[in-house]
Amino acid sequence: MFIFHRIKRFTMNLAAISSLLFVIQVDGKNIAKNQAADNSALTAEDQLKGSRNDVELTRRVREEITSRESLSTQAHNIQIITLNGVMTLRGSVKSMSEKNQIANIAKSVATDIRNEIEISK
After folding, report:
1. Distance CA 91, CA 114 (A)
2. What is the DSSP string of 61-119?
3. pLDDT tens-digit map of 53-99
4. Which residues lie across from 121 on neighbouring strands?
5. Integer Cα distance of 76 and 94 in angstroms
6. Closest CA to 59 of 13, 98, 109
7. Which of 53, 34, 39, 52 is nearest to 112 (CA)?
8. What SS3 state is found at 28?
9. How far apart are CA 69 and CA 71, in angstroms?
C-alpha cells in the first residue's frame, strides 16, 4: 500500500511538471513572437519602472473605465501602461464605440497616448 501511494504521488508530480513545462514552452514562443513583432513593446511589468505620476495617471484612467457600466467586461480589462508620461492602451474591445470611449477617457487624463486597442471579431 505504501509503495502504491508513493507511485501515485510521483505520477501526479510528473504530470504537474509536464504541464508546467508545456506552459513555459508556449509562453516562450509567445514572448519571442511579441519581441519579433515589436522590440519596444511594453508589458504590464514596465509600469513598475514608472514614476508616481505614471502610476497615478494609470490609476485614474482605470478607475474611470471600470466605473462606466456601459462598457463591457472586455473593455474594463484592457491593459493601461504609463511610462515616462506616455500612456499605452492595449487589448481588445467589442466595438469602435468602446475603443473611442476609452481613448476619450485617456485623453482627459494624459496628453501622450498610444492607442493599440483592437476590436474583437
Report:
1. 12
2. HHHHHHH-TTS-HHHHT-EEEEETTEEEEEEEES-HHHHHHHHHHHHHH-SEEEEEEEE
3. 888 999 999 999 999 999 999 999 999 999 889 999 999 999 999 99
4. none
5. 11
6. 109
7. 53
8. helix
9. 5
Query: What residue type is 78 in one-letter code?
Result: I
Q: Report whether 111 contacts 89 (CB < 8 A).
A: no
Q: Is the entire prediction scored with pTM above 0.85?
A: no
Rounded distance, CA 9 to CA 92, Å?
Answer: 41
Inter-axis angle of helices 96-109 and 52-67, nearest 10:
140
Cell of 33: 513572437
